[in-house]
Amino acid sequence: MRPTLAAVCLLGLSACSSSQDQSVEYGDVALINANVYTVDEAKPRAQAVVVRGDSIVYVGDNSGAQALIGESTAVHDLGGQLLLPGFIDTHAHPVYGGGFVTALSLDTWAEVDDWVEAIAEYAAANRDKDILFGYGFLATTFGPIGPTRQLIDAVVPDKPVLIMDEGFHAAWANTAALEALNITQDTPDPVPGYSYYKRDENGDATGYLLEDTAEMAMDALDVINDEVIYAGTGIIVDIMNAYGVTAVFDAGVMGDFDTAKSVLERLETDGELTVRIVGSSRPETEEEFAQAVSVAEHWRANLKGTYFHYNTLKIPHDGTVEGRTAAMFEDYQGEPGNSGQTVFTEDQLVAMITDAASRNIDVHVHALGERAIHETLNAIEAAQASEADSETRYTICHVQVITEQDVERFGELGVIAQSTPLWASYDTYGEQFVSADQFQRFWRYKSLEDAGARLTFGSDFPASGAGTLGLSPVVQIEIGHTRQELGNPDAPIQPREAERLSIESLVRGFTIDAAYQLHMEDQIGSIEVGKKADMVALNQDIFDVDPYAIHKTEVVLTLMDGRVVYDSR
Question: pLDDT, tens digit, for every residue of 439-472?
């Protein structure tokens, strides 16, 4: 067996000896004997990386690294393990999601009876809680009626229970919760057909709350506060590091500017913010629309630290397919007259995006339905024509159902397509609500790639559909490649099979292309000299294993700014 560099150093046969060359600037950290996949097209593979301070100073073979290893260099011999740039989650809610870490997390892939049992068990284990709160159910599993209060009443009749769905666009409440919220036959729907209380034939609320009504219920029951968010966000950061994530796009904060500022500054001061956060502000009502861009500008100027800054306007433009609120070109099956609804008119969207472009504020639009995506592309095209010199980058997130014409427009307009691959493993339930043609146009990843679009990927935690497991990029990579349930080659393939992506493409979507979305590709996203030393070492080569075993990959080492923020060894 050939000796490692560390062993050579011990033998005094290299620059690691006590007689160091004083003219050499040695590295602070060296990673040697690695299988380095740099995601740098000019130099895709290497054996070793050397870090000085927070930056990469060498990428190459072991012998070249040897010359930069001194007495104080921390040497990590990876023994042939895969080394990648640190993963970047391009759509999550690390601050918002902090409030959900200790809540009940339901298994999205389970059935209704399983969820009811889990609620009962959680209630028994948390008798001291006045209100029971959780998330994770898939609304389509219940069929057209959706979840009902009676299902929870059967196991928890005596205290309020509120469970958010996996996408956080709906909620499931029991009778006690509805009573606590004072929701009666006379309670008006905020936006009929979009943000509303599902009702039975008598006009009574069923316990299924759609869109804004779900968040209103969560706020009214006061299940989350700043202290819970602070503690939970710290836990999420630790989990991200354990999954190799070193940067994240915050797609929306629970609470307001003050909450975000307080939580992030406190985490940074405490030395617990070990991921880079690029974030957004978001209007949610017509009243907020008028000031949306000015608010985003305020956040950009005032919400920033060493490892966080907010430079993006997040625009929610429709709902979800499972809630039948995503905006489509045809009615949902079994619901004549309901084709979903957009939050803004197209004229409002054009005005908002053009204003953002005039101020070089990045734009990130939530659009799942084909009509919402079409309108968003129209608005972006108008903004680009009006503000041709803008540095704004445009992202449409989720992109569940896309027309053939609009697939091509992503590439033509240079619009980033952001999504969560995990959803392409369980959305077969959606077939009962959309046409056969629409179902065949779910999650068009390969088509978008072929059209020249830049794809980026993230967890959407806590709306990932798999609890904290959804924060794992290797889990997302496996499903993006197989479009099947984790580890199960016999599971149904989410249409179309042709939309499967290569491992290389998925890795780019979690690294260099993700960095581009964050406007940070010159700093992170690839292993190159001069970039920040954000890296992750994995215990197996995800390019060369059984695709259905990728999710079993374990993170060995995570570095952010050259500092070890996770070590499983």
Answer: 999 999 999 999 999 999 999 998 777 778 999 9
The helix (run of H) or strand (run of E) holding residue 177 is: helix 175-180
Bridge partners (DSSP) listed for residue 479:
none
Give the whole-angstrom CA distance, residue 494 versus residue 314.
Answer: 28
Distances (CA, A) of 14 to 18, 32, 260, 493: 10, 15, 49, 54
Q: In the chain, what percentage of residues exceed pLDDT 70?
A: 95
Question: At residue 260, does pLDDT exceed 60?
Answer: yes
pLDDT in tens, 317-334: 999 888 889 999 999 998
Q: Distance between CA 50 and CA 29 in Å, rounded?
A: 6
Helices 292-302 and 257-269, axial angle in degrees (round to 10)? 20
Contacts for 427 with CB less than 8 Å, ≥ 6 apart: 321, 400, 442, 443, 494
Integer Rg of the chain from CA: 24
Do the Cβ atoms of 418 and 458 come closer than 8 Å?
Answer: yes
Q: Is the dihedral of CA 465, 469, 472, 476 positive or negative?
A: negative
- Return d(Cα 129, Cα 115) in angstroms, integer: 19
Residue 422 backbone zone (phi > 0: left; psi -120 to 50: alpha; other: beta): alpha
pLDDT tens sequence across 161-188: 999 988 778 999 999 999 999 898 888 8
CA atoms within 13 A on the CB side of 124: 7
Q: Read off the amino acid at residue 449.
A: E
Question: Of 515, 511, 494, 393, which Cα lies nearest the Cα of 444?
Answer: 494
DSSP 159: S
CA distance 311 to 294: 12
Residue 13's pLDDT band (boundaries 50, 70, 90)? Answer: very low
Instruction: Record the tokens describing residue 147, joined without a space.
Output: 């979840």
Angle between helices 404-413 and 370-386 (to 10 degrees): 30
Confidence of residue 97 (pLDDT cuts 50, 70, 90): confident
Q: Do 527 and 40 contact (CB within 8 A), yes or no? A: yes
Instruction: Report d(CA 163, CA 518) in Å as an integer.
Output: 32
- Contact between 251 and 90 (Cβ < 8 Å): no
- CA 30-34-37 angle, 5° bins: 105
In this structure, how many other beta carbons lie within 10 angstroms of the beta carbon of residue 11?
Answer: 10
**Domains of the chain, start order:** 5-80 (2.30.40.10), 104-220 (3.10.310.70), 244-461+472-526 (3.20.20.140)
Q: What is the spatial distance between Cα 96 and Cα 185, in angstroms, rounded to a whole number?
A: 31
Provide the token pair at 116. 């009811």
Here the tokens at position 474 are 């290797």
Q: How far apart are CA 241 and CA 107, in angstroms?
A: 23
Q: What is the pTM of this model?
A: 0.84
